[in-house]
Design a protein that fits this description.
The protein is of the alpha/beta class. The protein has two domains: 128 residues, Periplasmic binding protein-like II (D-Maltodextrin-Binding Protein, domain 2), CATH 3.40.190; 107 residues, Periplasmic binding protein-like II (D-Maltodextrin-Binding Protein, domain 2), CATH 3.40.190.10. The strands form two sheets. A six-stranded mixed sheet has the order 2-1-3-10-4-11, covered by helices on one side. It has a five-stranded mixed sheet with strand order 7-6-8-5-9, sandwiched between helices. The longest helix is centred in the N-terminal third of the chain and has 15 residues. The radius of gyration is 18 Å and the shape is globular.
Length: 263
């Protein structure tokens, strides 16, 4: 049994589950999607080899590969449907505030309160630190920062006026707005940071090469058949594109610059 999981927000679980089920059926191999355990346990099992693959943020991907912590193959990265993604495997960090606030730009947020999901997130933490480094700030830009534990938790804190702002993964934000359209009335995007390379689907090289290649071929071809296209569309995905390790060099470069900043 080949186990996959997602390290992205829970609102991406349905499309991940559907993709894994579809690939398993197409290839007639035993695959399952694991989402009934905590994220810390998902990482523990992934790093320990119990979980063999999944959809992972670009920052923890490069951290594991560069530290020789894991030997991973890239299966592909989603290309989202909206025009701003330019038919490329990229995404953004949308800086959101409550619509009733007096914040209209990132510059307005100096001295504000800020929530971030967790420090190993490209969209929620690394991009913000990178942006602040480019502005010349090493610390103290925000009056208070709170680690929320998840993008959706950060979003709720902004909506509930518990913090002033947060950087939210654009995929997560768009999905939340589809699931809960009423939140659009209470949010304003004041900055779009990025783009960053899209979080990739990966698989452990401990899985036999022939199986890895078959899974990669199937996932890259999903958009070519009506059923696969429909599954992807359920997650606002146009297609899954082939990507290479060097495509994530931008994440590496951003992380190096961001090291000088503390939120």
């Amino acid at each position: 049994m080949i186990k996959f999981t997602s390290f992205l927000a829970p609102n991406t679980d349905p499309v991940c589950q559907a993709i894994v089920s579809h690939i398993a059926q197409q290839l007639d191999i035993q695959m399952t999607f694991v989402n009934d355990i905590s994220y810390s346990e998902r990482y523990r099992q992934f790093d320990g080899g119990e979980i063999s693959g999944g959809w992972i943020c670009g920052l923890p991907y490069v951290q594991r590969v560069d530290r020789k912590q894991a030997k991973l193959d890239l299966l592909g990265a989603p290309v989202m449907q909206k025009p701003r993604y330019q038919n490329q495997p990229i995404y953004f960090s949308d800086v959101v505030v409550h619509r009733d606030s007096n914040f209209y730009s990132f510059a307005d947020l100096q001295g504000a309160t800020w929530a971030f999901n967790e420090i190993n997130s490209q969209s929620g933490y690394n991009m913000t630190c990178y942006h602040l480094a480019n502005l010349g700030f090493a610390s103290g830009y925000f009056s208070q920062t709170i680690q929320s534990g998840a993008h959706q938790a950060s979003l709720s804190m902004v909506l509930d006026r518990k913090v002033d702002a947060s950087a939210i993964d654009s995929i997560v934000l768009e999905t939340e707005m589809i699931l809960h359209p009423e939140i659009s009335r209470d949010l304003r995007i004041v900055e779009r940071l990025g783009p960053s390379p899209m979080p990739p689907w990966v698989i452990s090289k401990a899985i036999h090469e022939d199986i890895r290649d078959a899974i990669k071929e199937a996932i890259l071809a999903m958009h070519l058949a009506p059923i696969g296209q429909a599954i992807l569309a359920g997650g606002q995905i146009r297609r899954i594109a082939q990507v290479y390790d060097q495509d994530y060099d931008l994440v590496r470069q951003m992380a190096q610059v961001a090291e000088s900043v503390t939120l």
